[in-house]
Each structure stands twice: as C-alpha cells, then as structure tokens.
Design brief:
The protein has about 775 residues and is an alpha+beta fold. Among the domains are: about 25 residues; about 180 residues, 7 Propeller (Methylamine Dehydrogenase, Chain H); about 100 residues, 6 Propeller (Neuraminidase), CATH 2.120.10. About 40% of the residues lie in helices and about 30% in strands. It is built from 12 helices and 35 strands. The strands form 9 sheets. Strands 2, 3, 4, 6 and 7 form a 5-stranded antiparallel β-sheet that branches. It has a 4-stranded antiparallel β-sheet with strand order 8-35-34-33, with no helix packed on it. A hairpin with a 2-residue loop joins strand 31 and strand 32. The chain is globular and about 130 Å long.
Length: about 775
Amino acid sequence: MASLFSSRLDSGRVAGTCLAAVLVGLLFGGCAHFEPHPLTASKNAADFESRALTDPGLRAFLETNRLAGEWPRRTWDLESLTLAAFYFSPELDLARAQWGTARAAMRTAGQRPNPSLSAAPQYNTTTLSPSPWIAAVNLDLPLETAGKRGHRIAQARHLSDAAKLNIASTAWQVRGKVRRALVELYAATEQERLLAAQQAAQQENVKLLEAQLAAGAVSPAEVTRERIALDTTRLAAQDAKRRRAESRVALAEAIGVPVAALDSVEISFVGLDRVPPDLDGPAARRQALLNRADVLAALAEYAASEAALRLEIAKQYPDFHLNPGYEYDQGDNKWGVGLSLELPVLNQNRGPIAEAEARRAESAAKFNALQARVLAEIERAVAGYRAALEKIATADSLLANLERQDRALRARFEAGEVSRGEVIAGQVELAAARLARAEAVAKAQQALGELEQALQSPLPLPTSLETSPRPEASETTGLPLQFHQSIPLPHVKGGFDLMAVDMAGQRLFLNAEDNGTTEVIDLKAGRLAHTIAGMHEPKWVVFRPELNKLYIANGDGRVRVLDSRTFAPQRTIEFKEKANNLRFDPKTKELLVGVGNTFGAIGVVDTRTDTITAEIRLAHFPKQFEVEGNFIYVNVPESNHVAAVDRKKKTVVATWPVTAAKGNIPMALDRVRHRLFIGCEPGKLAVLDATNGKQVAALDIAPAPDGIHYDAKHRCIYISCGDGSIDVVRQSDADHYEFAGRVPTAKGAATSLFVPELNELFLAVPQRDGQTAEFRVYSVNQK
C-alpha cells in the first residue's frame, strides 16, 4: 500500500510539474514585452529646429504627389507649401495616432475571453491512508452568446472609420491654416510695397511744398498737413512690416517647421492676385452636406452608437461557462463537467441599454447639428466671398478712374497746364487706391479659402495621408515599412521590370526594361557593381546559385542564360513570343516561363539541359503566376480569370473569375493558408481560396498595383503601386484582412522584391519627368 501511495504521489508530482510547465508556457510564451520609447523635451525641440524644406523625405513625398522638379526647390507656392504641411504637420501626426489607437481597439474588440484555471488543494489530517490529499482543478471556458463579439467588432470598426475620416478633416484644417497664412503674407508684402510707393510720392510732395513754402506760395498749414499724411503712411508701412513678419511665423507654424526654414526659400504668390468669379454651386453644396469628411465621420460615430446599443441588448442574454474539472480525492481520480450561467432575474441590463439608446440619440443630434453648422458655414462663406468680389469690382472701378486721371494729369503737366504738385497729389491718390484694391483681393482670397474649406472642394487630398511620410514619425504611427537607403542609377533611362537576389554574394539583379540592361547592385556596399548590356526589354530574372546561372526573360521571346560570376552568355532558350514571368522549382529543376503576346502559354524548361520540354496552352497571355506543388496559378488579365494548371497533366483544369476588378496582373501566395493575393485595376486587392477559387476578401488599395509580396512572419501583404506608394495589408486570419498603412514612394515606382531573410523590401524608381532612376531599400518596421 505504501509503494502504491508512493507511486501515485510520484506520478502526481510528475503530472504537476508537466502541468506547471504547460501553464508557464501558455501564460508567458506569447506575452508582449515593454519597449521604452523615451520622450524628452530637449530632443523634440532639437528635432523640430532641424526641420527644413530640403528634407529628402519631403522630396519623395512631393514626387509621389506629382510635384517633381529641381531639388532643392527654390520657389514654394500654395500647392507645394500645402504638401509640405501634410508632410510635417503635428496635427496630422496626432490624427494619425488617434486612428492608430482606434485600430488597436478593433483588436481588443475581437479578442475572445480567456479561460480560467482554478486549483483548491486540501489536506485531511485525520485520514492518511491511502492519501491525505484532496486536490481539485477546474477549468472555466466562457462561451459568449447572442453575437456580442460581432457587435463589439462592429462598434470598434465604425469608430476606426470615424478616426480615419478625421485625418482628412484635419488635413483640410491644415490646408486652411497654410492658405490663410500665405494670403496674409501676400497681403502684408503687397501692402509694404504699395505703401513704399505711396511714401515716395508723399515725400516728393512734401519736398515740393517745402520749396513752395520758402517761396511764400503755400501756407505752413498745407505743408504740415502733408507731413502728417507722410508720417501716417510711414506708421502704416512699419505696421505692414510687423504684419509680414508675423505672417511668416504663422506660415511656418501652419507647415510645422521653424521660421528659419523659410529664410532660404522664395515664397511664390502666384494666383493670389486674382480670384475666380464664383466657386459655389448647388451641386457643390450638396456634395459638402453629404460627403465632407467630418459629416462622414459623424455618420460612422452614429453607426458605432447603434452597434453599442446592439451589444447592450445582446448582453441581456447570459453567457455560458463550461466547467470541466478534475479532483484527486484521497487516492480517487474524479472527473466532472459543469455548466453555469448568470440568471437575469434582478436586472436584464436595462440601465446600460437605456444609456446606449440615449447615446445613440445624442449621436443623431450631433450629426444634425453638424449638418446645420456645415450649411451655415457654406452660406456664410458664399456671402462673404460674393461681398468681397463686389468690393473688388468697386476697387477696380475706382482704380481705373484714378489711372485715367493720372494719365491725364501727366499729359497736362507735359503741356504745362498743371503743376507738378497736382501730378504728385494724383499719384498719392492712385497709390492709396492700389492699396485698397490689394486689401480687397486679400480679403477675397481669405473668403475664397473659407469657402473651399466649407465645401472641401475643389482640391483633392493626397491618398497617402493615413500614414506619416516622415521616417522619424513611423515609430509612433506604426508605419509598416521604413525607408533605409537609396542608390542612384543616373545612367538608367525609363522603367524597370523584375529583380532577383543572391543571398550568399549579397548581390541583386535588377532588370532595367527600357534601358535594355540588367543592373547588378552590391547590397553590402550599397552601390552599383556592374551593368549587363545587350538585353532586349529584359523582364524577369532568376538566379540559381547551385548552377551559377542567371536566367533573364526578354521581350523578344528569348531567355538568356548567363554565368552569374562572369556574366558571360552561355545559352539562349527561344520561345515564339515575349517571355515574361519566370519561376524555378528546385524539386523538379524546372524553369517555368510565361510566354505570349498574341497567344498564351507556360513554357517548361529543364535547367539541367536548358531545353524546352513542354508548353502548356492558356486562353490568353499570362502575367504573374505562382507554383504550389503540382499546381500553377496563373493570372490571365485578358480573360480576367486565374487559370489553375495541373503540371502533371500539363493542362488547365479550372478557371476562376476575378470578380473584384479588372486587370489582374500581380500575384502572391500564402502557402500555409492557401490564399492567392491578386492586384487589380484601378486599385483593388482580391483574396482567393487557392483550393477552389472562391473570393474570400477584397480591399481598396492605391492605383496601378504591380508587385505583391506575402510576409509570412508578420502576416502582411506588401503591394507596390505605380501611383506612388507601397500599401500594406495585414492578415487577421485566412479570410479576414485590414488595411495597415501606406508608405509614400515615387511616381511610377512599382517594381519591387521582398526578401524575408533580410527583412527588407527593395523598390525600383524609374527615370521620368525630371525624376532620376534609383534603387531604394525599405526595412520592415514591425514586431
């Protein structure tokens, strides 16, 4: 009996030790760890003072938004200053951070309640045989009912949408501040210039009157009156100088840079000396009332309040708790299963339901008040703008009459009919009229800005405002990729196609399609190492280290085989038409080639002999494709479908329509969850189940997607888009995805390669419109 007890005790200890190890692993294995991000006033102040309009990141942001040109930029107008404000603005950084908080709340809302484990050991001192121990272990598995988790997620999603829309609303406010400060600077500059002209005329008039006083031709009172007028103009000029200095500070503040950043640049006022005859219309008013960012945000908040009410109503229905348990009772093993739930007999969640109903009513009232305020803003802005236009018309009429008077006085003076003093007096009047007109134009420009902000039209906002384009802000806003390095390629003309990497040799092979070359980049040294010339529209490239070979697909249907060490040509594999995409299967040693222009096929090359062994016909020419085991998944954009090819049968066994959009060109594959990621035009990401072709998700992305890469470690999809961005989509599970961020790049920069071993994404920037070709490196900025 003692040995049996000892055996049970030993086994209990072993089981306890194992259970403790499992518990420790479950409790702490997946825990997040605190990472300090110190925030100091001195460092922040130093960083702010170092900001300048020569920031290379600002250059990339301007190029992304179609403002390429000389750099550093010498002249900054309203458009470029507005984009600079979007780049630097701390207000936008705050709005982005608030959206980040709202997105994090979505993860919280989607969490399922954790099970709990309880243990209650006891020791019976009166009974020692067979064992004095009584130990009970119970597991509590909470089971939510009535769709509570779905309602929480819906509420968090609507609040996230509202926070995202607040970024656009903040951007309009930032633009309004820049515009007001620039118009004020223009008005002060014009006032200072015109007052200087008026002062010069008055000084000449005083000098003339003083000479006449000495000759006894005028009285001292007349001279004194003109001296007072001159001093008044001098005071106004000093006030204009102060106003100009203050407006420069206001402009710098609106942009988010120190005022010293404006000292070395020229501010352009082009377009501010004139105003359009009218901007408002019934359609624009209706558009603002329905589609202003703050209006849409208020609607999202109302939808969130409805989801919150549904959640509180669902809470009337109790959750179940499943309680499996084990008890070791003095040598006996006892198992049991319990079920518990809360009994809603004292309350049925009526209080929280009433609060949620009241909050929904409050949200509706806020929306109604907002629409009324928007309408009032529009009406007030329209009235102010039209009044300003009328004032300009009056000032124009006065100015035209005084200009005619000035010409007449000059002519009469030349004829000896009037004195010089009368001419000067007319010039003083003319200068005052020009000053009045300039002030009227400035008022009209301010009114126009208020009207544009009220209508949130006609200027479209950049598409990349959701994430900060500044690298230093990426740490706080969660920018998924961070710019690391740029390697200029000034000799390359035009655009690029695909690239491949040599991990051991730290080299990258980049096809410069329009240049007819393959560029070899030394990744370790960060420089161009070699240029392989003589290609014909080089498309894709595959590097095989075990063979020391480069396979380069060309637009003339030839796949060139080169020695990867010397770049000497070894063989040419010829197809009937354009050779585009390449994939290598290390198991079968086969190189798969996308072929066609007037027809479509997948060519099969045995790399042991570099000969064509088969061609698998398709409905039309193929674009990107992926290989998984016995299957090839091929994008066929001409037919707007994905062709599933059986490699053994060498035939198409299924075609799956891409319903999200047209132009299905780039493709990537999640091999664990069997999901195909397909980029479409004008800007859509479709997710297909690779086992049956069913579309499980579709998301909006930037236009012109060209490269798609799946990061299995971080469960992210990186999409390089020719519109000038890398879009990042995060995978929650096989069928659920969310937009995670947009990294601004450069116009036309769509060729990319993600290398998971390096945790880096490479991007090729084409030469176009004053933009020099370059090779960029981005580091994955995720945990």
